[in-house]
Amino acid sequence: MSKQSYRNSYGGLVDRSQPLNFTFNGKSYLGYEGDTLASALLANGVRLVGRSFKYHRPRGIMTAGPEEPNAVVQVAIGPRTEPNIRATELPLSEGLVARSQNCWPSVGFDVGEVNNLLSRFFPAGFYYKTFMWPASMWMTYEHQIRRLAGMGESGRDPDPDHYDHHYSFADVLVVGGGPAALTAALSAGRSGARVVLVEQDTRLGGALLSENGTRQIDGKLVLEWLASVEAELTAMPEVRILKRTSAFGYYDNNMVTLLQHETKQGPGVPRQRLHHIRTKQTVLASGAIERPLVYGGNDRPGNMLVSAGRTYANRFGVKAGKRAVIFTNNDSAYQAAKDLVAAGIELAAVVDLREKVRGDLAAVVADLGAQLFVGHVVTNTHGRTGIWGIDVRRLLDDGTVEARPLHQISCDLLLSSGGWNPTVHLYSHAQGKLRYDERLTTFVPDHCPLAIRTAGSVNGFADLQSCLKEGAVAGADAAKDAGFEAEAQVFKTGSEPEEAPLGEMWSVPLPAGSHTKRFVDHQDDVAVSDVELAARENYVSVEHLKRYTTLGMGTDQGKTSNINGLGIMGEISGRSPGEVGTTTFRPPYAPVTMGAVAGREVGPHLAPKRRTPMYNWHEARGAKFVESGQWYRAQYYPQGGETLAEAARREATHVRESVGMCDVSTLGKIDIQGKDAADFLNRLYVNGFAKLPVGKCRYGLMLREDGIVYDDGTSIRFAEDHFLMSATTANAARVLQELEYAHQVYWPELDVSMSSVTDLWASMSIAGPKAREVLQALECDIDFSGEGLPFMGHAAGTIEGIPAQVFRISFSGELGFELACEADYGEALWAAVMAKGEPLGLKPYGTEALGTLRIEMGHVVIGPEISGNTTADDLGFGKMCSTKKPYIGHRLKERPGLVQEGREQLVGLQPVDGTTRLRAGAQLVTDPKQPIPMDTQGYVCSATSGPNIGTPSATALLRSGRARMGEEIWALSPLHDEAVKVRVVSQHFIDPEGVRVRA
Amino acid sequence: MPEGLQRKSALEGHYNEGLVNAASKEAAGLGVSERRGLAIIQFEGRRDDGDFREAAGKALSVSLPEGTCGSSSGDGRSFLWTGPNRYQAIVAESEGPAIKAALSDGLQGRHRSIIDLSQARTVFRVSGPALRDFLSKGTSIDLHPRAFPVGSVVVTQLAHVGGTIHHVSEDVFDIYVFRSFGRHVWEWMLEVGEEYGMVIEAPGN
Predict the structure, then answer these.
(1) pLDDT at position A730, please?
(2) Which chain B residues touch A673 with a CB distance below 8 Å?
(3) Smallest CA–CA separation between B177 and chain A, in Å?
(4) CB contact under 8 A, A608 and B184
(5) DSSP string for residues in A567-613
């Protein structure tokens, strides 16, 4: 274990009493509580952290925040592994394991580095140009390219952690945790508004945390002030502070998505939370990100942003190098110079590309004992996996550099600052428009249609006093617009001298003859030469520039590169960056895990599970369940090692020969009441319901408005003004919706109300020749005889002490009774019937056997036969359609296309050889040898082995089918390479006269 | 209800009273329980019947909530607004028949639908300081007391199924879901509520 040789024994916000062990690329290191992975690596002198995307060049930590393009790591091993984590954001934790993402086989020796040697053959657009042909090979190329591209890996095993979603609300959402954000939250919070403050860091303070802590706000040292503000906010009951949380998307109606990394651990605590927060007002105080300067050799480990070097020194007590040079075009870097020296870094020089520097700043450099080069630039760095020296040259008036004199300065750290870019991503998500600010040479917020205010350095450069003021005012105004009385309290801080204009320079010229690469986008390896190439090939539009060069398309979303890229393109094409414009920022601001997006809706929780009152009984009996919509229905009750087909065959045979009981509680049930209820049903069903006698059931068929069959089911009339309608299990909710629509839109004058009562009833179908015998064995006050309870009749009474209803209806074609009782008694009634019935042969049967029985009867169901293409006549219900009344669909069912000759009609099919099974979906043709495309005349809807028919049988839709009885045709299933000769028969395979059902 | 006949909850076999991730009842952020033994009577009139609320209230000798998304409570009974001219009476099981009869008699001559949904719902009572954080995982309704004060009712989605949420008293909510989804919602609650520490109380009414 190496010691932290770059760590100071003083300074910073790390807790040196709490050492943490971690592993990076297989080596063990020590850091402290309060470190990020990046600061701990630097403390240990680890400079090389990854390889670049395309050329596999050695790369080091460049920033200290979410904008990091290089230090992208894969964290953890095994199923918890997560790629695309920026080391600069990841809080160090005990036992953390991380590795470089983009290198193979190791960061020190990377075979992809050969790409760097060949880099002049890998310019922008290389992939587009090279892997275009042969097109069929792309699949092969893509695999290799992706592996070399280092996109990270996901674990191969299920993620053991879980993730939660939250729907949250706020009057004022504050994005950021710096001085503007905190004062905004205070002003809004004091008004009593519901405030949510979102900070991506582990602590509040923003840029203040990177300072040396000597400044004062409101008469307090910065850290004390921060603590007092946080304490006040925390004490407010309506204020919520979310740390380690990034606002990554801003959507219509001020809906903002937040990704919260949970810092607590414990049972049930998710790893991350995804919040959908709906806010009335937003204060965007997201700050600004420093922009690097673009010079030769600017990507070697040791090149870093000035702000990052300062943050590591001040916040973490870490020296990012031993001997540093600062290269800047603006005043903000000079404060950093002082801080670096205070942290024990030797400052070799400050190189300022401007011709003039304010006297007091020049004095600062002199006091620090460093050289000051004004009007000079850094043109190259020397080294391989680190820097050992740099070249400094004089900048000439014509924009080139002087070859001599060349100042070579030895250093291992080169910090650059090219100005600041406001973090406007969310503003842009919210359709906010940006404006190019010539003085700041960057894009700043202009106007936005959504309720966003901006405060602090997101508006461009802002000194601390402006941040404090803008935040307080924005917070108060936001609270006022959310309906609260608020006042802005502006905290006072010391004044700062006004900054001189920065020196605009998008890329530092190379000395004549030099071909050193100057990187714009470090993550995606886009160099100045690539932008120049794009311009030469006329990809001058910002959208083309992005796509052609991949500028800004990495997981860092170009946070350090976009504006520089636009500036360079502007220079080449003679436009200002404002004229070049920006691409639109889109969510997510930072990568979001798929786990957070999925939330709890994984595995068995993918969809809600709906259970019947008898679910526990089926489970105890060993039933296998099948999903039907959201319902879990007993599909079959296997005995011994029975397969599904064997069990269904046994159960179906048993029903025809003896008696079985099936749980039919899932069938949709709709209670319909009102004096116009009968009229209402009469308008919905094709057949008449107005004159249905009280106490009787009737099968009904419903059409869509376009004349196609919609649903079917049996309805019972309980009283003159009271019906119970049944609907297909998986279609019930839609049928109820349709009924409500018809009532509310077409016929609001009808006195009728409807409500779902599916869940109120436990229903069981008892079917088979011995059904009556079973029922008569029950303790009960109902007459089950043919006279007492005729087919389609209804009776109510008490069965085994339970209030129950009996309907004489049958789906299986056998003598059948449907028993129903209220849900909480369902299991008791089922068990009582089973107890009395089993000695008489009663056995449970599942939905698979039920399906077999209905196919044997030629009954149609939603899906195979009621397919959304079939008319009532197609299904053989033509005569059922009333001619005496209008009903939904009655006009459009007469459309020429729906009544023409040759439509597919429902028929039965049986194999001519009497044994070959048929397949649902098989296509029907007259000549199996005809050339493709064949003239298909229909298809098989539902097929059964026909346990009670003695031969495999199927329902089918066949062109003019009813006129083709006895014809022999072919059922082809090309997927299975099957061709079966079949005979067209009636689909009513069993008991076509309905004798059994009326027994 | 006949003598000796016991209603069986949808949570039968999956209801374990006690503490989940909490050292004591007081330390638990959430209390959850099933409400049993309730009668839930839904009654509804024409949407355009301007006197329906008054007439039904008169029939029941109570004042039904005015406007939308409200409730009225007293004497252990609650009346929830669940739609235009649609209400649900939540009363003790023994009171159900009387409520039905009173409505049936009192609303003679005007359109009405009266349905006993007692056994069509599973009812949960949830309480405790973590209540809103907990429910924010499953519903997109703002349940803050300013937006959803005591007495409020909302028919919405919870844990991806339809449900009714009633703010009974400070930090106490009742949740009504379809009985067939009862166990799904229960298991969902036990899972997403674990982090707050829970006390699963004995079923009550």
Answers:
(1) 87
(2) 112-115
(3) 10
(4) yes
(5) HHHHHHHT--HHHH--PPP-S-SS---HHHHHTT-SGGGSS--B--T
Strand partners, A113: none
Instruction: Say yes or no: B171 contacts chain A, CB-CB below 8 A.
Output: no
Phi, psi of A127 (to 5 degrees): -65, -40
* 3-class SS of residue A21: strand
Residues A425 and A413: beta-carbon distance below 8 Å: no
Pick from A607, A757, A824: which is nearest to B7 by CB?
Answer: A824
CA dihedral (B46, B47, B49, B54) in degrees, to 10, reads: 100
pLDDT single digits (tens) A362-375: 999 999 999 999 99
- Tabulate helix, strand, coil % of chain B (nearest 5): 25, 35, 40
Within 10 A of A791 (CB to CB), how many other CB atoms are there? 15
From chain A, pick out residues whose CB is under 8 angstroms from the CB of B157: none
A467 in helix, strand or coil? helix
State residue A137's pLDDT score: 64
Q: Quick check: B119 and A673 CB within 8 A?
A: no
How many residues comprise chain B?
A: 205
Q: How far is B134 from chain A (nearest CA, A)?
A: 9
**CB half-sphere exposure, A396, CA atoms < 13 A:** 11
Q: Tell me the C-alpha distance between A523 and A880, whole Å.
A: 70
Residue B49 CB neighbours (<10 A): 19
**pLDDT of the residue at A185:** 98
Q: How far is Cα B8 from Cα A986, in angstroms, rounded to an integer?
A: 46
- Report pLDDT digits (tens) over B166-202: 999 999 999 999 999 999 999 999 999 999 999 999 9
Structure confidence at residue B1 as a pLDDT band (50, 70, 90): very low
Whether the Cβ atoms of residue A720 and residue A694 lie closer than 8 Å to each other:
yes
Residue A140 CB neighbours (<10 A):
10
Does the pTM exceed 0.80? yes
Alpha helices in A794-877, H assignment, sequence order: 826-837, 847-857
- The DSSP secondary-structure symbol of A422 reads E
Helix, strand, coil shares of chain A as percentages rounded to 5? 25, 30, 45
How far B145 CA sits from the closest chain A CA (Å)? Answer: 11
Of B13, B141, B180, Cβ closest to residue A616: B13
Average pLDDT score over residue span A422-447: 95
Give residue-wise pLDDT tens across range B11-64: 999 999 999 999 999 999 999 999 999 999 999 999 999 999 999 999 999 999
Check if the beta carbon of residue B52 is closer than 8 Å to that of residue B110: yes
* Per-residue tokens: A228: 């007092």
Question: Which pLDDT band holds residue A138 (cuts at 50, 70, 90)?
Answer: low
Q: How far is A682 from chain B (nearest CA, A)?
A: 19
Residue of B nearest to A615 (CA): B10
Do A502 and A330 form a contact (C-beta atoms < 8 A)?
A: yes
Q: What residues in B contact A755, CB-CB < 8 Å?
A: 42, 44, 113, 115, 117
Task: Note whether ipTM > 0.85 here.
Answer: yes
Written as one string, the DSSP assignment of A74-97 is: EESSGGG-EEEEETTTPBP-TTEE
The shortest CB-CB distance from A166 to any of B8, B120, B137 is to B137
Contact A600 B191 (CB under 8 A): yes
List of residues 6+ apart from A749 with CB closer than 8 A: none
Question: Which pLDDT value is given to residue B192?
Answer: 96
The answer to whether the beta carbons of residues A996 and A772 sit under 8 Å apart is no
pLDDT digits (tens, 9 = 90+) for B123-156: 999 999 999 999 999 999 999 999 999 999 999 9
